[in-house]
Predict the structure.
Amino acid sequence: MAKAKNTKSDKTPTAKTPLTPTASSQAIDIGISTGDRKKIAEGLSRFLSDSFTLYLKTHNFHWNITGPMFNSLHVMFEGQYTEQWNALDETAERIRALGFNAPGSYAEFIRLSSIPEEPGLTEAPDWKEMVRQLVSGNEAVARTARKVLKTADEAGDDPTVDLMTQRLQTHEKYAWMLRSLLE
């Protein structure tokens, strides 16, 4: 069987390609300008990509944890990835409410995320490295959320500010809880 070439489609946006509004986006009049909605949607797209990458990494580590911390970390990771999975939808729906399409492919998430992927199939890190990476990932998601929050606040987008505030609280808590395991 021939291996498929990994080529980029002309329709696949790059990190520098701006979002294009949906067909109904031009008719949206929610008190936020099209330009501000676009900036917020671009930030939310990066946040969604960071969040999805962290979700996937957390789930990977849940599956591949071994050693003396297996039970406690297996359970902790499951609680975190379950909560993260449920939160992804709210972010994507907010992007749609602003009149833009949400990223939804691995290629888009990889391109937009600030969090590196972690292979699971070849070799999983030890539990301490898993925890370190998840601390770093939660901190990265928090930094991205702060940027989006600032942009949304300046544009008067209270629903996005509220969403980012909730996500900040969650990811800062996760980072703290995970960091405590390394002390």
User: Anything to note?
Assistant: Residues 172 and 178 are 10 Å apart (CA to CA).
